[in-house]
Amino acid sequence: MKKLFFVFLTSTLLFLSISHSTNANNEKRIIKTNTVKVEQIIMTIQYGDGFFTLTRRLFTAIGLDPTSVTWNHVLLLKTIYEEQKGYETLKVGEKFVILKSDFI
């Protein structure tokens, strides 16, 4: 009777350890990681710049075609500038930061 009990106990423990290791392996496969690359671009206002010119220069810096600039992109750049500076007039030499992810 003792032998039967020990066989049952060891087989149960063996089964539990195998099922636990299988669940741990499945959990390792489920975990996924995602990386997000955030790049910022510092724009400097030059003499004669307007928001359209700034947007074209930004597209060139990002690596997009500067001829594909739309008025929505210009409005977005103007909104970002106004939020950072508090006014909409461009002043030569001022710098402001743009996240690359906003335009892609």
UniProtKB/TrEMBL annotation:
Position of the signal peptide: 1-24
Protein name, entry field: LysM domain-containing protein
Keywords in alphabetical order: Signal
Species classification: Bacteria, Pseudomonadati, Bacteroidota, Cytophagia, Cytophagales
